[in-house]
Amino acid sequence: MIVVTGATGHLGRHAVEQLLSKHQQVIAAVRNVEKAQPLAAAGAQVRFADYDQPASLEAAFAGADALLLISSSEIGKRFPQHKAAIDAAKKAGVRHIVYTSAPRATDSGIKLAKEHAETERHLIASGVPYTILRNGWYIENYTGQLANTVKLGTLYSAAGEGRVSVAPRADYAAAAVAVLTSSGHEGKTYELGGESLTLGELAAKFSAWAGKPIGYVSLPFADFKGALVGAGLPEAAADIFADADLGLGRGELLVEGHALETLLGRKPTTVDQVLAATPRS
Fold first, then answer.
1. Total structural domains in the chain?
2. 10 Å Cβ neighbour count for 224?
């Protein structure tokens, strides 16, 4: 039995669906049980689990052999939430925890990586067999804003000419499924990333897809953060995302090696393949 946290989220949903397609018994651990009904209809066992309610976690994890701990989206609360999940899994007798972390988490200068590094250290210290998946950037971080980028005619960032390694969430989910359904991964940390490119090169791909010029402009940190706030992001979130762009510019989101390809058993999905499957509005 495999339990997946955040099962109704973008990454979690992919993981649950792919595990079910491999005829695995899956517990979908969620805060909103009603939202998870499509997963229940597909064959998952849905259980209530809230990172902020440790007792609910232990109950949700009961009987599970493995846990896919998908990192929380609540920046600033992540480490205590992850710690609660790891501790609950240990109490429940879970024998393998797979955690979705960030590139180079323990030596990254990106603010977003700090809570991942804390989680990794606690996971290792827990004594539960673990696998750490340091997921590279999701291409959806950019394609999710594609309509607005096309409308503006410009992709803005604070990343300069840094290179970023991207793949779709479905690929990272497939890597997690491969780890959960095969042996030999305990105690390992995988740096996962797909196609590597600059944001200027990404803008050129967007331009070819849209059939109109899409430029690329790298702004100073303060200007980019201000633009994010102006677009509606809270200041703390804008600071985190603009800081991640600075890290991208320093090369901290460039993932070398072929760990993702090895786990997938194929080449990661390219940006062009993602765009080809994206409908034009």
1. 1
2. 21
Residue 276 has pLDDT above 90, yes or no: yes
Separation CA 122–CA 26 (nearest Å): 25
Residue 200 lies in a domain: no
Q: What are the residues whose beta carbons fall under 8 Å from the beta carbon of 2, sequence distance 6 or more?
A: 19, 24, 25, 26, 27, 64, 65, 66, 67, 68, 180
Nearest of 115, 73, 113, 64 to residue 92 by alpha carbon:
64
Q: What is the pTM of this model?
A: 0.96
- Residue 219's pLDDT is 96
User: Tell me, what CATH number does 94's domain have?
Assistant: 3.40.50.720
Average pLDDT over residues 61-71: 97
Amino acid at 256: E
Asked if residue 222 is part of any domain, the answer here is no
Residue 109 forms part of a structural domain: yes
Q: In this predicted structure, what is the pLDDT of residue 68?
A: 98
Residue 14 located in a structural domain = yes
Contact 264, 256 (CB under 8 A): no
Question: What pLDDT is recorded for position 233?
Answer: 87
